[in-house]
Amino acid sequence: MTLQRTWQQGIKILRRAGTETPVLDAEVLLRHVTGFSREAFYRELMTPWTGKFQPEWMEILHRRAQGTPVAYLVGRKEFFGLELKVTEAVLV
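Given the sequence above, the corresponding structure tokens read:
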């Protein structure tokens, strides 16, 4: 199993859940869990998925599938080039 395959499985789960942007959501969530920048994420797609992130990945993925906004899950949101800290007390 590779990082890319893990991402594809996340996309399937989010598509089935009816999220509007399953590809982007799965990418952002997986990058959050692994700590990869966007560039590193795409560079490392063929890296084996070790599974050490699996519990956190599944938890965050299923919370998104249940409708929790991505910003709440990752704790931040970009706004006009600024990265803002986000909690559930913030309306997104």
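The two ends are 34 Å apart (CA to CA). Try to locate this feature in the token string yourself.
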